[in-house]
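$ fold --in a.seq
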Amino acid sequence: MNELQSLLSPRSIAILGASADLNKVNGRTLRFLLEKGYRGSIFPVNPKYDSIAGLRCYPDLGSLPEAPDLAVIAVPAAQVLPAVRELAQRGGRSAVIFSSGFAEMGESGRALEAQLTEVARKAGMRLCGPNCLGLINAFDGVVATFGQFAEGETPAGPVGFVTQSGAFGTAIAALARRRSLGLGYFINTGNECDVDFVQMMRAVLDDERIRVGAGYLEGVRDGRGLHALAARAIVLGKPLALTKVGRTAAGARAAASHTGALAGADAIFDGVIRALGVTRARNEEHMLDMVEVLGRCALPGGKGLGIVTQSGGAGVLMADRAEETGLQVAVLSEQTRSALAEVIPGFGTTGNPVDVTGQFVADPDLLLNSVRMVMDDPAVHVGVVWLQLMEAHVERLLKIFNKINEIVKKPWVVCWVAAPEEALRQLRAAGIPVLRGAEPAVDALAALVRYAEARRHWLADAPARAALRLPPPALPKTGGAVGSLD
C-alpha cells in the first residue's frame, strides 16, 4: 500500500469547503470522521468559519499547521483545479475529489480533468476521483466520503471492495453488511483521473488484513495492469470476485455517459481474468455469494461435489447446475452408500444427491451423520446441504450445523431457502457460508474450485512467477471453513 499510503491511511485529513451543517454533503465527512473515531489530525478549511464541531477551521490550506496527507475536496467543479493547485503548493500528498462536472460531462469536462491529472503528477500527488463518493478504511477509522454507507455501522472485516459506481457500489456495500460481510475498505474511484481501479485494488490486497477482494467495474484502461493485479492476487492467495458491466454495446455507451469510462473489449477482459482464477460475477448478489464462499472457505483439493438435501427436486437442480459449471457430482463409494443406507429412511436416496427426507427433524443425528459420511467420501471435495423453512427447528439446526463445522474438514456450504434472518446471522458468525438458492450455492462452490485449480497451476509455474518478479507464495490451505468475515 506504500504508494497510496497517504490516500488510504492518512495521518491527517483536510476538508476543503467544510460546512458547519454536518448533514450537508460538505459537512458529512467531518461528522463521519468524528463518529468513527479517526485518530489523526482533522483540518476543516473554509474562510466562513472560525470553528466547526469544536475543531479550529482554517481559511485556506496555507494556514494549516502542516501539509495534510489527504485533502477531501468538496467544492464546485470550477473551484477544484485551483484547490488542487493550492494543495500541490502546500505539499499535500493526496486528495479525494467529490465534485462532478468532469469527463462524464463531455469534451470540456475531459479537458478540465486532464489539467487535474497534470498538476497532480507534477507534484507527485495521488488523486481519487473526481465524481466519486470517496473511500472508507474501516480498520483505521478513515472516512473520506459523504456516502450513505457511512451512516450505519462499518465494522472492519477482511473484504476489500472497490467500485467505479458510487450509488450502485453503496447498494452492494449495504447488501454486504446485511450478510455480515465486513468491508475493511469501501472505495469509489469515480472518473479515475489518476488512481484507477486496478491500482486501488492492488493496494487493498497488499493490506495483510484483507482476505478477499470484490469489485464493480464499468471499464478498464490498463489491460496489462489488470493481468498483473490478477497474478498478484493469486500469488497472495486472495481471491477476487468482479462484476464488470458494459458487456453489450448499449451497456458500454451507458458506462461512458456515467463515469467517462471506456468499457473495452469484454472478451479480452474475460480471458485475462478467468485464466488467473478471478471470478466474474453476473450481478451484485452473485458477487456477494462468491465473496461469502471464497472468503469463508479454505481451498478444495478437487471438484467432486457432494449434495445432501431434504428435497429430491432441489437435488436434481443442483446436479444439473454442477455439471453446467464444471463440477463433478461425485460418485459415492459402495462403502459410503452402505453406511448411508443404515441411517436414511427407505424412501430417501443414498446416491448423490443424497436425499435425507424430512425425517431429520425427528432424528437430528440423521442429518449430522449423513453429511459426515458424504464429506468423508474420497470422491467428494466440496459439499452443499440444502433445506427450506424449518422455522420451528432453528435452534436444533444451528447446533447440527455447528457440529458439522467442527468435524468436516472439507469446504461446505449451507443452502437454506427462506431461512430466518437470525439463523443466517448466527451461521455466518460461526464462519459457515450460507446461501439462499440452490443454483447460487453451486455457482459459488464452482468458483471456489476454479480458483483453487488456477492457483495450483499458477504456483506450479515458477518461470511465470519469476517473470512478474513476485515473491514465492505460501502454499494454499485446504479444509473446511476458515473463519468469519464479519
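$ fold --in b.seq
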Amino acid sequence: MTQQRQKELTLTRLFDAPREMVFKAFTDPALLQQWWSPRQFTNTLAELDLRPGGAFLVNMLGPDGVVYPNKGIYREIVQSERLVFTSSAFEDEAGSPLLEVLNTVTFDEENGKTKLSLHAVVIRVTPEAEAALAGMKEGWSQSLDKLAELLE
C-alpha cells in the first residue's frame, strides 16, 4: 500500500553565472552528468528527451557500487526560466516507482548572477522508500554544490 503524504522541500541558491548557463547545466546531458548526484556518487549515464512529455534517465553510481536509476518526465520547459519535471527512484518488481517527486526549478537573473529556486513536492512514497526522504535535502544540496563548482 502506498502512503500519500505531503512532503516538500524548497532550496534557493545564487550562482555566479548567467541564467542561460545554469539552465544549460540542467538540460545538456554532458553537463548534467557531471553534477546531478550527491558528493560520493558519480553518474554513468544521462539521457534527456527535453520536451514536455519527454523522459530523462540518470544512472547514479553509489559508493556501494550499486547503480541507482533516477528517471523522470518533463512537464514544462520555459527556456532559461523554468523547468517542471517528475523524478522517481527505487522501483518495485513491476517497475513502479517507490518514490516520485514533482520538481519545479526557476532561474531568475539577479545582477548578472542566477538565483535558482527548487521546489520539490513528494507525490508518491511507499513505506520502503520513506527512509530516502531523510536524505532528499542533503542530496539536492550536495548536487547544487557540485553544480556551483562546475559553473566556476
